[in-house]
Every structure is written in C-alpha cells, then in structure tokens.
C-alpha cells in the first residue's frame, strides 16, 4: 500500500506531504489546481519520463518520495528485490525516491541507487497507475492481446515464454541463413584470400613485445659510428691528450701532497683530488669497456631493419598492435573453417529452420488454444462489468485471427469487438467507442485485473472523463467495490465519485507575491460535504445543496460498503 507521498519543487508545488489511507482516496479540486501534477509526480518517482521544465525553481533540485508498506511480501517479489540487489525491508517499509536537477535525476530504493528500468520492474508489482489518456491505448489492437495475456497469465505466460524462446532461436537461424548466400566462385575466392592472410601472418612468427626490443637494438646498431666517435673523444680527454684530465689531476696531487705537509688544513683538498683521480680512472675503464662492446656490423643492421619492415607491414595490413593482428588471424581461421564447411552448415540450418517452423506452429497453436479458453472467461466478466457501468445492452467478444508470420507473441491477432446499442452490429472497439465509453471499458478491465493480480494500489487520473448522471454513479459504485480489497487513489471532478471517498483530499491553487502555489488538504467530514456541495451547486451553496451532499455521502456508505 502507498501510505505517503512527498513532493518538493515540482511544477506548481513548493513542498507538500500526503498521507494516504487504505480504501478509496479521492483527490478533487478546481480545473488547473494541480491534481494531475500529483499523479504525474508519482509516475516520475516510479521511473517515468521527466517533462521539460519540471522544476518550479530551476536553481534548486526537485525531490519526490513514495512510502510503501509491504505486508507479507510473496516469494516472487522478494526474489525480484534480491535480483536487483535491493535489501528486503525487515520492517515492511519501502521508500522510493527520485532527485531531479537541471541535468540529471537519481532514483533510489531505501537509499540505494537503482536504474529507472529496474525501478519500474519492482514497482509494477506494487502499483498500477492509469494515466489521463491511457484508455486511448484500447484503440490499438496490440493492447488487446496484452490485456488478454495479463488476464490469463497464470496459464498463458508459460506457453508464451516457450513460443518466445523458440522464436528467438528461429530469428537467429534466419539471420545465419541470410549469410549463406555465397556462390561457389565467391566462396572459393574468399577461401583463397583467407588462406593467404592466415599463412602470411603465421609465416611472420610474430612475438609479443618483439618490436620494442628490435627498435632498441636497431637504434643502437644504427648509431654505432656516432657512439664510437663521441666515446673516443671522451677517453682522449681523460687519458690520451697532453692536457688530459688524468694528467692534470696527477700534477695537482704532487703539488698538494707537498703543501699539505706545510698546512694540514689542506688535507680535505688533498682527499678530494685523490677521489677525483680514482673517479677518472673508473670512468676511463667504463668508457673503454662500452667501446669494446659496440659493433658496427652492417649485416646485423640490415637484418634488424628487415625484421622491423616485416612487422610494420603486418601492422599496416592486419592491425595496429600484436593483439589486433592475432585477432585478425583468428577471424581468418574461423571464417576459413566456415567456408570449408559451408554446404554442410547450410543444410543443417535449413533443416533446423524447418524444424523450428514446425515447433513454432505447434507452440503458437497451443498458445492460441489457451488464449481462447481465457477469452471466454474474459468476455463474460467484462460484459458483467460493463453492465455494472451502465452499458445496459452491451455485447462484447474477443475476435481471433491468425497472422501469416511468426512472432514472439505467437500468431494470434486479437481484436476486442463491442456493440453498445440494441440492434447495432458488433464491431471493432476502435471504430465505435467514445472517450467516455473507453474510460468505462478501461475501468471495467482494471477491476477484473485487480481480482487476478497482486497489486495492492490502483491509481486513476480522471477515470470519469466524459461521463455524468447515472453512469457516473455506476462508476463511483465500482470504484467503491474495488477499494474494499485494494487501495484506490483517484482524481475526480464528479460529486458521485467524490462522495464515495474513505479519505478526501482537496487540491487548491493559490497566488501571492511570491508566485503561484499548489497545496493539498485532507478534509474532515464537514469540509468534504462542502466540497461536494461546491461541485453540485457551484458558487451558490445553500442549505439544500449541503443537505444533498450529505445524503450523497450517506448513500455511498450504505450502498458500496456492503
């Protein structure tokens, strides 16, 4: 059950809190007061699409939070929460929120971030929201099949899943067959090309990381002359020239050795010159050793250049890295195997296609048979529901036709057929139903579904569109009947429906120096009577109108709570 709704900085709403109750919750108010904003906020919190300019103050974030009480959740709902990695609430409290900024929004369940699609999967089990124009979906035949499958889902769903699984395999088989369109000339030509590329890559004997090592070797070999010249100059400067560094240090040491006998304060300089002589000796040895290791082998240089050229050629043809080249090789090998076994694979797929078509036909016929069984029950229940909603001479049928092509839903083409006037032929629903009739038909369907599913809360946004009088009374009675077993939240502008409320909320729009605001108030008994009287009498509310409103509420209690 939805027990609370918090909205902040959304459309005309600064901030409101609503505490819903079990039974029938009615929201009423003048046109434009913001009734649909409240239902729309519920839809947004459940992962629905964000309208443009949804924030009342664009400089602040918007926030919507729904509080659900989950009493004794069934195993399937617990499994769904665990699948989405949401902790099962021990206290039965499930808080769903959506924070909205100018650039993004974040959905959470009990504080844990969740994607909008996962959120919708979870909340579909908690709440069924009928938007303002949802009844228009009845004009689409695809919706009729969806409704019938939902009505009989206990038996239809397993068979439908079997069809869907077969169809997925069938589609993949058709896709693979569509690629089997090569004639022998093209096939042999492609085989030769694949073999050539495969052999060329294998003959290269590429090694991972080889190029970097070769580049270092080539750079050194290619720079041998420059290295020898430079290092020889260094060696000469240290040892070979008349003014070499070694001789200069040696002469300096002779002088300092004599001077240090005269002044012991020169000992540090003496030691430093000793260290310098040793260091120059070590450098001389290192340079000489490095020189002896440098090879100016032109044959080696040519060999390194050739190997690098081969690697670069492989990269140019087959990929920028060793990994990409090897991946291309594997694809060549795979494609070559496919081409060599082409005829065998094509024959296998053709046989598989025929087998799947036979299996799909059988499964689709089985699915159609189950649907037709449930269609009879659906026809009976919906007709009874429509009579209760003042369709006094209604005829209703679920018409079946067979599509020529397979689909994940089977081969059934389902159309709801109806006649609402005596003597009128039964015709497709989309051809004859008015807006008000569609609203009532959808309400009748929802009332049937409420008996077959586990959803605790039903929300209707202006289900009373296009009706009045006795029909409005019938709609009100049905809403009252549904609310005995389910929580119902409904926006209405008809007194007949409002009088049925267990809890009545009034939505008002107010304007002041700070702008326009929407507020909501839970009405007590007397204030509810006054609101119903306003609906009945407009501006002129006298004692007679108030008494009429009281009688409507009294009648609602006596007739719908039996």
Main traits of this protein?
562 residues; alpha/beta; Rossmann fold; 15 strands; elongated
Topology:
Elements: E1 2-10, E2 13-19, E3 24-29, H1 35-45, E4 62-69, H2 75-83, E5 93-100, E6 105-109, E7 112-114, H3 116-123, E8 127-130, H4 141-151, H5 153-178, H6 184-204, H7 210-222, H8 224-240, H9 245-259, H10 267-293, H11 298-318, H12 322-340, H13 342-388, E9 395-402, E10 412-419, E11 427-428, H14 429-432, H15 435-452, E12 457-461, H16 469-482, E13 487-491, H17 495-498, E14 503-512, E15 515-523, H18 525-537, H19 543-560
Parallel strand pairs: 3-13, 3-14, 8-12, 12-13
Antiparallel strand pairs: 1-2, 1-4, 4-5, 5-6, 6-7, 9-10, 10-11, 14-15
Helix pairs in contact: 4-5, 5-13, 6-12, 7-11, 8-10, 9-10, 13-15, 15-16, 18-19
Which consecutive residue ranges, at least 5 long each, have pLDDT under 50? none
**CATH homologous superfamily (4th level) name of the domain at 1-126 and 455-562:** P-loop containing nucleotide triphosphate hydrolases
CATH topology descriptor of the domain at 1-126 and 455-562: Rossmann fold
Strand order of the largest sheet: 2-1-4-5-6-7
The largest β sheet comes out as:
6 strands, antiparallel
Structural class determined from secondary elements: alpha/beta
Strand content: 15-25%
For the terminal residues, how far apart are their CA atoms? 22 Å
């Amino acid at each position: 059950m939805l027990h609370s709704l918090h909205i902040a900085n959304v459309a005309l709403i600064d901030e409101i809190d609503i505490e819903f109750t079990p039974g029938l919750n009615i929201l009423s108010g003048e046109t434009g007061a913001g009734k649909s904003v409240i239902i729309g906020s519920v839809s947004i919190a459940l992962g629905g699409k964000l309208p443009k300019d949804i924030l009342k103050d664009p400089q602040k974030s918007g926030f919507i939070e729904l509080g659900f009480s989950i009493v004794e959740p069934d195993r399937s709902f617990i499994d769904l929460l665990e699948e989405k990695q949401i902790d099962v609430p021990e206290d039965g409290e499930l808080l769903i929120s959506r924070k909205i900024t100018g650039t993004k929004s974040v959905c959470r369940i009990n504080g844990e971030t969740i994607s909008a699609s996962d959120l919708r999967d979870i909340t579909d089990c908690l709440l069924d929201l009928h938007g303002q124009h949802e009844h228009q979906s009845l004009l689409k035949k695809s919706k009729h099949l969806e409704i019938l499958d939902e009505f009989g889902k206990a038996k239809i769903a397993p068979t439908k899943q079997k069809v869907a699984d077969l169809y997925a395999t069938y589609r993949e088989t058709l896709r693979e067959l569509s690629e089997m369109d090569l004639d022998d000339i093209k096939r042999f030509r492609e085989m030769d090309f694949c073999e050539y590329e495969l052999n060329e890559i294998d003959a290269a004997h590429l090694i991972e990381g080889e190029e970097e090592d070769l580049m270092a070797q080539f750079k050194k070999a290619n720079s041998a002359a420059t290295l020898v010249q430079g290092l020889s100059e260094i060696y000469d400067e240290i040892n070979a020239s008349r003014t070499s560094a070694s001789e200069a240090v040696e002469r300096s040491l002779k002088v300092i050795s004599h001077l240090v006998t005269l002044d012991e304060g020169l000992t540090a300089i003496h030691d430093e010159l000793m260290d310098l002589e040793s260091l120059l000796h070590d450098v001389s040895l290192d340079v000489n050793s490095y020189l002896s290791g440098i090879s100016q082998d032109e044959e080696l240089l040519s060999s390194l250049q050739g190997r690098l050229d081969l690697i670069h050629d492989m990269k140019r043809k087959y990929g920028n890295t060793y990994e990409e080249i090897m991946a291309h090789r594997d694809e060549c090998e795979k494609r070559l195997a496919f081409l060599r076994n082409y005829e065998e694979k094509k024959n296998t797929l053709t046989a598989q296609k025929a087998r799947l078509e036979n299996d799909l036909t059988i499964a689709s016929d089985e699915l159609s048979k189950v649907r037709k069984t449930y269609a009879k029950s659906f026809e009976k229940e919906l007709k009874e529901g429509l009579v209760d909603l003042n369709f006094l001479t209604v005829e209703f049928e679920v018409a079946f036709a067979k599509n020529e092509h397979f689909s994940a839903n089977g081969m059934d083409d389902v159309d709801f057929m109806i006649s609402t006037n005596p003597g009128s032929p039964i015709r497709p629903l989309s051809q004859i139903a008015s807006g008000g009739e569609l609203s009532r038909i959808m309400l009748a369907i929802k009332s049937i579904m409420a008996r077959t599913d586990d959803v605790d809360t039903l929300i209707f946004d202006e289900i009373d569109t296009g009706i009045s009088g006795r029909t409005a009374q019938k709609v009100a009675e049905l809403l009252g009947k549904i609310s005995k077993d389910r929580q119902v939240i409904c926006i209405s502008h008809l007194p007949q429906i409002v009088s049925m409320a267990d809890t009545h909320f009034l939505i008002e729009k107010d304007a002041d120096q700070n702008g326009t605001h929407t507020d909501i108030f839970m009405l007590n008994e007397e204030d509810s009577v006054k609101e119903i009287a306003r609906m009945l009498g407009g501006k002129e509310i006298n004692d007679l109108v108030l008494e009429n409103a009281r009688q409507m509420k009294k009648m609602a209690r006596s007739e719908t709570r039996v």
